[in-house]
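Sample pair:
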Amino acid sequence: MAIAQKLHNQLVLASASPRRRQLLAEAGYSFKVVPPPVNEPPTPTNCQLSATAWAEALAYFKARAVAQKCTNAIIIGADTIVEHDGTIIGKAMDQDHARKILSTQFIGDNNVITGLAVLYPKLKKRIITHITTLVVMRKMTDTELEEYLDSGAWQDKAGAYALQEGGDRFVKKIEGSQSNVVGLPMEKLNEILTNN
């Protein structure tokens, strides 16, 4: 166990995501879930920040909000976005928006980027980074698209699809961390928690 973990003894996931919670639990961590008490800023349509900087900023925004309440813990914040042809794609606003994303924007090469922020309030230390995974998607047929939309699996998902909820049927190739695509890059997180 790293020195910081001995000092804090408590791991807090600053996210309401059941997928992130499942990944952390499957990795054997004992932790508490504290959703950020703030609303996430909307995905910018014309942003001066790069996609990686935006993902990192959102992860830190979430972690910092929770760290103000949990000062004796290690706080994990994460945010996943999709970048396609230089455009940041966040969560679909509604089913029509999801249809547009999945039928026009989300075909071919996509970068799935998760910003990761690990804060140690007691030590006044923070680690902010990101992981990028290449996901190559195939075009859905009209029937597949409507079935997927009707399933509701697009809701609250970056890029309007979930790898673990049927979205894997439309993936041609993944290069990089698969847990990153689900929402929490466990390889990088394990490295941070072990070495800090």
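The longest strand covers residues 108-120.
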